[in-house]
Specification:
about 260 residues; mainly alpha; Arc Repressor Mutant, subunit A; Tetracycline Repressor, domain 2
Length: about 260
């Protein structure tokens, strides 16, 4: 008798992909291991031997998807331009496009739905992606700001604020089902980057830049140094005059009759 052909077993990656599709489609609670194994054509025993339980399978499938989705720091570095503003515009566009991609939206909605019961999911995403991006952005700020930036103790806070303002806004809107066209998204990125760098309190018609701000700081320091030197010279002149006046009023300095 001819043996019945066995269905080829799925690889670990293929199983995780199928499981994640089902978790996204039906939610964690309504997706059973039986549903996953039936769709994947695998025995339940095989899945339990590999992962132990449904929760472990879900977390590993999600972690793999997060690792594939995160933008590598090297790609952000390759997008840098001559000025900080142009660099942040390019970097912001990459990060926004990534979070609004189909894979990004799927991960965003799935992690938002399940991170309440499994906070380690959100912690993993932050550790693997957000923390590295913040470290890179803080280094970028210090590098462009020169000596002033070297003492920038709040560079990490600035990097986190950049992500919340530039990337977090479009991500949250998309997670709530707000759909914007490409032009609107690009305008939002440009506005957010400029708001982050310059704020809203510029004089009408005046557009500041990081380079102009640094030039103003340098002018201020140079003028301050000049004022200090002038004050020292004035003090020395005052002491000289006081000494000269004192010596002219002493008896021994008066002409004899």
């Amino acid at each position: 008798m001819r043996r019945r052909a066995r269905r080829p077993s799925l690889s670990k990656e293929e199983l995780l992909d199928k499981a994640l599709d089902l978790f996204f489609e039906h939610g964690y609670e309504r997706t059973s291991v039986e549903t996953i194994t039936a769709t994947a054509g695998m025995a339940k025993r095989t899945v339990y031997l590999r992962y132990g339980d449904k929760k472990s399978l879900f977390k590993e499938a999600l972690q793999r998807a997060i690792d594939q989705w995160i933008v590598p720091v090297e790609r952000l570095q390759a997008a840098e331009r001559d000025t900080l503003e142009d660099s942040l515009l390019a970097i912001g566009q990459i990060l926004v496009d990534n979070v609004l991609s189909p894979a990004g939206l799927r991960l965003l909605r799935l992690t938002n739905a399940e991170s309440g019961r499994m906070p380690e999911i959100g912690e993993y995403a932050v550790r693997r992606g957000t923390d590295r991006t913040i470290t890179y952005l803080a280094t970028l700020f210090r590098r462009h700001l020169g000596q002033e930036g070297a003492q920038m103790a709040d560079a990490d806070d600035a990097a986190e604020a950049f992500l919340h303002l530039v990337v977090g806004g479009p991500a949250n809107a998309a997670a709530w089902g707000v759909v914007r066209d490409r032009d609107a998204i690009n305008r939002r990125v440009r506005f957010s980057v400029r708001l982050f760098l310059h704020g809203l309190l510029l004089p009408p018609g005046r557009k500041a830049s990081v380079d102009s701000v640094m030039a103003l700081k340098n002018d201020y320091l140079r003028l301050k140094k000049g004022v200090v030197q002038t004050m020292v010279q004035l003090d020395m002149a005052r002491e000289y005059l006081n000494d000269a006046q004192g010596s002219s009023t002493r008896p021994e300095s008066r002409p004899k009759a």
